[in-house]
Specification:
Two copies of one chain form a homodimer. Chain A is α/β, with parallel strands linked by helices. In chain A, 34% of the residues lie in helices and 15% in strands. In chain A, the strands form two sheets. A seven-stranded mixed sheet of chain A has the order 3-2-1-4-5-9-8, sandwiched between helices. A two-stranded parallel sheet of chain A has the order 6-7. Chain A binds chain B through residues 11-13, 19-20, 23-24, 26-27, 30-31, 50-54, 63, 65-67, 69-71, 73-74, 76, 199-201, 204, and chain B through 11-13, 19-20, 23-24, 26-27, 30-31, 50-54, 63, 65-67, 69-71, 73-74, 76, 199-201, 204.
């Protein structure tokens, strides 16, 4: 049974992991007979956002690991507890938490830094020749950590985020919502999901392909 | 385009709606070309539970509608704002929130009461001859509201909940996780999902069938 690390960072698109993208990742892994290994930083989220009115809520705090446990139904460990040797592949779902909790790209752009335990994991998995899947805004993490490898990535459309994230060498190309971009040399697969998806069906089509392409490269 | 009401009550299996069941419901509705109409009570959850250690968190409160917006990506309205005339069918995902937020079955058993706005909606949708889908523990809501119609329902296996919920007339039968029970006369479809599912793939199979059977009965 293939084991696939899935990095979460809360529960909700504004302050953590995008829920649909995360659940669809788990669904397609399970359908393919792979075992998801959910991980999230055991630390506070950047903020708590009200997903009904979109506003940050002053004075509230939530822990990324404990909130991610809602998506993972409790089957989640602290980011850093597992290394590249524990998994056959790594998948990074999206959500604003990616650019706020897992790195500070939203605030700092090209000068952003990725959480050290995640940067180390991405580097190790890549160095071991194991495939990585990056969904939605997560290709930014790959660009920040592996920029010098000139990874081929997509954020769906060419936008300001793609411009800023490409400064260190990553190459961004457009991609249809239901499709994926594959960097054969670096063994990295990316799909736009809710960067461009208009509904869950579109996001699902791209994530299904991403999971299949990632798993195929574990063989 | 068929419109299908989806009743949520928070975001997480211990204190609100089961996330996988809710997302899979939205996925299969969207794939079939139907439009989900998410609804949740604009009121406080029964509690806030930590989904990492399973414990209630003292002194914290969360609002069901605002938390459900995480699952619905903001596309959710207050329960009570829509009536049977606004939808072609109604689907009730599961989670402990169903028996704690939407009714007090967990505490009161057979003597439980369903939130009045939800009880009214279930009665109206049923009276209009429109189909209802009940996932996981949600058949309990049908048993409490429509017991005198002798609805045929499932909670997967025959357990204490099924015993207590059948007091007012509902008939519970066993059902495989990937399957559904259909009450043709009452136009009610139910599936066990995470009452018995061991993983998301099993829950998905049953929910896919439930959505298909519900939509077929809207024609």
């Amino acid at each position: 049974m293939k084991r696939v690390g899935v990095v979460l960072c809360g529960c909700g698109r504004f302050d953590g992991s995008e829920i649909h993208e995360s659940v669809l990742t788990l669904l397609h892994l399970q359908r393919a007979g792979a075992r998801p290994l959910c991980m999230a930083p055991d630390a506070e989220q950047w903020a708590v956002c009200d997903h009904f009115d979109g506003k940050p809520r002053e004075g509230e705090t939530r822990n990324m690991l404990h909130e991610a446990a809602r998506i993972a139904r409790g089957d989640v460990v602290a980011l850093g507890a597992l290394g590249a040797g524990d998994m056959d592949a790594l998948i990074l779902p999206g959500g604003t938490g990616v650019t706020r909790n897992l790195c500070d790209f939203k605030e700092k752009g090209a000068g952003a830094r990725v959480r050290p335990e995640l940067a180390a994991l991405i580097r190790e998995v890549h160095a071991a020749g194991k495939p990585i899947g990056a969904i939605c805004i997560s290709p930014v993490l790959i660009a920040l950590v592996l920029g010098e490898k000139k990874p081929l990535l997509t954020l769906g459309k060419m936008n300001r985020s793609a411009e800023k994230a490409s400064v260190h060498g990553a190459r961004f190309v457009p991609c249809a919502t239901e499709s994926v971009v594959v960097d054969e040399e670096n063994r990295i697969v990316s799909t736009p999901a809710y960067v461009t998806a208009r509904h869950i069906g579109e996001a699902d089509a791209g994530i299904a392909r991403l999971v299949a392409e990632v798993l195929r490269r574990t063989e």
